[in-house]
Design goal:
With 214 residues, the protein is α/β, with parallel strands linked by helices. The protein contains 6 helices and 11 strands. 34% of the residues lie in helices and 26% in strands. The structure holds ligand NHR and glycinamide ribonucleotide.
């Protein structure tokens, strides 16, 4: 068996709590990747303290300090590239990224989104799922492309909607599953099992007919 010289290097982008970041940190040794740095657009994001606690480098690129999205994204790219990561993970990152930025990281940037894509792209997914009366909800990990929450979906996790669910209760159950889903997908990157080719997900050198289920 051959072993890679270096584990997959990951930079995680956050805006808030960072529970998905924590799940990534906690699973990293076991799953063959390293969280090299954590970057937040919000100075107060609780996830920054989680990273510091784990001895991981942190950076803040505060979007309110920039006059437009292009200059913010340029500063963000500079902060990321200082770590030369193999993979960029959006984990509760709340800023829409410009086409130029997305193109720079094509095929090596993923997002965890709290819905069964292509359902409920955008924000407030749990409330919208309840309003729509769906019986099943969940989360997806997808490649980030210029189409917001529209990039090819790598994997999903499904959660049954229960009669007693409100927004918060459903969100909490989905989030628990995100914490399993996201480290699993990053492990597949570390094992070189994933690629995006011609706008499709390839897994083990085969185009995926549908998202993997976790
Ligand atoms: N950027 C691109 N180009 N493509 C994607 O698929 C992206 C992306 C940036 C973020 C995450 C996404 C989610 O999982 C994501 C995917 C923020 C918004 C949003 O409306 C929408 C989707 C996502 C993240 N943001 C507002 C904005 O004006 C700000 C909202 C806020 O600050 O609270 O950027 O849901
Ligand atoms: C997660 O549910 C994530 O899927 C979602 O925000 C939460 C972040 O939680 N992402 C988005 O809504 C992106 N627009 P966390 O900070 O505890 O990981």
């Amino acid at each position: 068996m051959t072993v890679d010289a270096a584990p997959l290097s990951v930079v995680v982008l956050i805006s808030g709590t960072g529970s998905n970041l924590q799940a990534l940190i906690d699973a990293s040794a076991r799953r063959g990747y390293v969280v090299h740095a954590v970057i937040s657009n919000r100075p107060q994001a609780a996830g920054l303290a989680r990273a510091a606690e784990a001895g991981i480098a942190t950076r803040v690129v505060d979007h309110t300090a920039f006059s437009d999205r292009d200059t913010f994204d340029a500063a963000l790219a500079e902060a990321i590239d200082a770590y030369a990561p193999d993979l960029v993970v959006l984990a509760g990152f709340m800023r829409i990224l410009t086409a130029g930025f997305v193109t720079r990281y094509a095929g090596r940037m993923i997002n965890v989104h709290p819905s069964l894509l292509p359902q409920f792209q955008g924000l407030n997914t749990h409330r919208r799922a309840l309003e729509a009366g769906v019986s099943e909800h969940g989360a997806s990990v997808h490649y980030v492309t210029t189409e917001l929450d529209g990039g090819p979906v790598i994997a999903q996790t499904r959660v049954a909607v229960e009669p007693a669910d409100d927004d918060a209760r459903l969100a909490a159950r989905v989030l628990e599953r995100e914490h399993i889903l996201l480290p699993q997908v990053v492990e597949w990157f570390a094992e070189h099992r994933l690629a995006m080719r011609e706008g499709q997900v390839w897994f083990d050198n085969t185009p995926l007919p549908q998202p993997l289920q976790c």
